[in-house]
Model the fold of this input.
Amino acid sequence: MKKRKDVWKPEEDKLLKETVLEYTSNGDSKASAFKKASTELGRTVSACRYRWNAVISKKTDKETNENSSRNSEIQIYETPGAVPPENLAQVIQFLRNFAKTKSRSVHLMENKRLHEEQKDLKLQNKQLIRKLQEKEVEYANQFLQYEEMARILKEADQLLKQDSVEEKKAVH
Done:
């Protein structure tokens, strides 16, 4: 069980905020963000959720409103049609997501390559199974021939022994 911590430090607020914003911008739930933050902060999931809802989300909304009014004044000097980020946190978030998206494409390519390799290996496996079955049939046929030859040789040996016994009787 995690030990109770009452006072939140600014660094903890910052980490919680970054974690929640990162998770939600990636399409993940806040619940998974709170779980991740709780392990990093050594706090309960409930404490992280409460802190987010009671303090941080309100600060974030206030900052967003202040920045949007500032941006509307600055927009006059920017190129027409460009939508500027509202604050530095959004720029950072965009860059993080962009980096993750780029690395995902590498993972997607690797995943595609591995799927192709898997298809090839399955085909190769089917071919080997077919060859094995052919060899098993061939082995069974050869084994039957061997048994037949062994039976014939045994009969011949018995006939030779009988002839030998009969010759000995005839000599005596």
Q: What stands out?
A: The radius of gyration is 40 Å.
